[in-house]
Amino acid sequence: MPRPAMRAPNPDWTDPGCPVARSLDLVGDRWSLLVIRDAMDGARSFTEFQRRTGIARNILTDRLRKLTAHGLLAQRTAPSGRRREYVLTDAGRDLFPVILTLRQWGERHAYAPGEPHSTLVDQQGVPVPEFAPAGADGTPLGADTTHVRKT
């Protein structure tokens, strides 16, 4: 099934030819990624997002509007039928490896050895293994083994 197109090209892209820069233009502030993180963890309502993040109402309103406009979140009627809720779209769910990589980087570099922190676990309660990108032949990939090919 084809993916829905994001918005038309923005004349204000930071670097129009770079997918990293465009991604950061869409979700590169901390609040946007924390909203996506919490949506992945089951948050659905404005109140839940605000409670979990501590974000100011005006900033949360702006981020939810932006993430919805760019197709990362969608609004739907809550099962109760009384409120609207936010749910991840396919594009929003596609950010899972990004959130996972940031989490694992943070576990390695943002905590002192032995300092407690939350742990991401699978449905059986087992910690998620280290995420490591690999090439088509299974060889580990890194900054020293890849390069950008400009088009």
From TrEMBL:
Cited PROSITE patterns: HTH_HXLR
InterPro entries documented for this protein: ArsR-like_HTH, HTH_HxlR, WH-like_DNA-bd_sf, WH_DNA-bd_sf
Superkingdom of origin organism: Bacteria
Coiled-coil region list: none
Pfam families per record: HxlR (PF01638)
Protein name (record): Transcriptional regulator
Organism, as annotated: Streptomyces albus
